[in-house]
Every structure is written in C-alpha cells, then in structure tokens.
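Write out this protein's structure.
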Amino acid sequence: MKAIIFLNGEYSYEKRFLNEIIDEKDIIFCADGGANYTYKYNIYPNYIIGDLDSIDTVVLDFYKKEMVKIIKFDPEKNYTDFELILHEIERYQRENSIIFDNIYVFGGLGKRLDMTLNNINLLEEYQNLTFFSSNEEIFYKESSFCLKNKKGREISIISLDNLIEKLTLKGFKYEIEDINIERKTSRLVSNIVISNKCFINFKKGKIIVILRKI
C-alpha cells in the first residue's frame, strides 16, 4: 500500500501514466487546489486538506457530495498544505497501524520556485517520498541502493553534503569506483543507466536522485 499526494503545482501527466502508478488500494490525499486536477483526471481522493483557497467551487461541491473527507485549515497557518498532508499521513498510519512503503507526489514541482524548493527540501525528513513530473522522478537517499528496471533513463545525483565518501557507480555509462565527490562538482549530472540492475554505493553522504526519461 502507498499514499498518493496531489499538490497544486504543474501538471502535464497523461491519464495512462497516472493509471500505471496509482492502484485502487492506495490512499489519495489532495492539497487544496490539487483536487482540481484529480477532478480533471476523474480520480476520487480520500482526503482534501488545506485552507481551500485554490480549489474550484464546482470541484469542492462535487467532492462534498461524493463524501470525500475534507479537512479545512485557517489560512494563517504555520505549515504549507503539503506539510499538513504529511502530518495527516502520519496520523493515518498511527490510527490504522500501517506504514506506507512509498508516498508518491504529483504536482509538487513548478509554478512557484519557493514552493518547489521547500517541497524538495522535505525529502530529507520524509525519506519515502518520490516526486513525479511528466518525465522525471526525484527522491532522497543517504545510504547505498540498487536501481531496477530504469535502463535508458538519464540520472543526475545532487549532493546535499560537502562530500560524498567512496562513491561507486555500477551499471551506468560513466562508472566510478571509490571516489570522493565534492558538492561543488557537476560530475554526477546527466549520466545514463545502461543496465536493468545498477548500483549506487557510498560510505557517507546525503543525495537527491533525479531520473529522467530521454
């Protein structure tokens, strides 16, 4: 089981792309204006959360009639709608004694740079988050991992630390072994996945991984 979040950022997804990712067992959360897009894609969320300043009236009325749970917050709040959803997901997991393996986010990029950067910054705190654009997926790692079935994707690794220690890349067009990588370098940008199973190993570091369809 996973959680799906629709935010109020940029949308250029094809419906079939969403259908490939979203399962009927998933729990769907909308941040305010994100519900305008689930309405467009004919998707029924479980929750709509926020101050409700950007959701269309017709969309809000429709989902009210469909008995979607709506949680309204005062506009003068200390958190973004995205953060409110993440808090609600934590509550949901506690009350239902489950843990979502993954939290997939749509509409979390674009429109406003401040919101985009703030959203990406939350990856370090909520490490099972993955952001999707129409051709990218973005996630956080702080330990070695394996990528499967991503052959042909372009990959960029962005360091959040001053140094990634003893980094090894296997299964990529440009491979390295036991190299220390400083944050200021662009050496890890625009590599290519050439294997159906590849490895990113490192002793220490915090990184954001961006996979792009080419």
